[in-house]
Amino acid sequence: MILQQILRLSSLFHSAVATHVRRNIGLSAIVFNKAKELDPVQKLFLDNIKEYNTKSKQAGRPGDARPDFQKDLNESLARLQRAYGEGDLSKFPEFKFEEPKFEETPK
């Protein structure tokens, strides 16, 4: 009887310790990943994104665009305006929905 209680307590203790260790290993892996330096491929990818962003801001257009990008863009916008009507095609359209008017029917 005492042996069964000891075995039962040891299995409970083992499961509690296993859960605790598993959680701590998971949290420590996250901490170690943030603490260490990025691997070279990730670093290169992030550097390229930052470089592209600075080029885009300086040029006022997408970073790797040709010099005649603005001319092509204006031609495309003019063609779309002729096909689909007037309006500013550089902005997302604003939709206005009116509430339907319901009439009560006499009973």
Key structural traits:
107 residues, mainly alpha, 65% helix, flat, ion transport, ATP synthase-coupling factor 6, mitochondrial
How would you summarize this macromolecular structure in one to three sentences?
This protein has helices at 2-35, 40-59, 69-84.
How many alpha or pi helices? Answer: 3
What distance lies between the first and last C-alpha atoms, to the nearest angstrom? 79 Å
Strand content: under 5%
| Helix proportion range | 55-70%
Helix/strand class: mainly alpha
Shape: flat
Summed over residues and divided by their number, the pLDDT gives a mean of 77
Largest sheet: none
Whole-number count of domains: 2
Low-confidence stretches: none
Number of strands: 0
Order of helices and strands: HHH
Q: What's the alpha carbon Rg, rounded to whole Å?
A: 32 Å
Description:
This protein is mostly helical. It folds into 2 domains: 1-36; 38-82, no CATH class. Helix content is 65%, strand content 0%. The protein contains 3 helices and no strands. It has helices at 2-35, 40-59, 69-84. It is flat and about 90 Å long. The N and C termini lie far apart (79 Å). The mean pLDDT is 77.
Q: Which secondary structure elements does this structure contain, and how are they paired or packed?
A:
Elements: H1 2-35, H2 40-59, H3 69-84
Keywords: CF(0), Hydrogen ion transport, Ion transport, Membrane, Mitochondrion, Mitochondrion inner membrane, Transport
Protein name: ATP synthase-coupling factor 6, mitochondrial
GO molecular function: proton transmembrane transporter activity
